[in-house]
Amino acid sequence: MGCLICLMASCSSNNDIAPLTMTAADTLAALKRVERAHFEISNIKPVVQTGDLITRTGNDFTSESLRSLNQRNQTYSHCGIALVENDSVYVFHALGGEFNPDQKLLKESLEVFADPYSNKGIGIYRFDINPDQIQAVLNKVLEFYTLPVTFDMQFDLESEEKMYCAEFVVKSYQKGTANWLNFPVSKINNFLFFGVDDLFLHPSCKPIGQIVYK
Question: Which CATH superfamily is domain 29-212 in?
Answer without folding.
Answer: endopeptidase domain like (from Nostoc punctiforme) (3.90.1720.10)
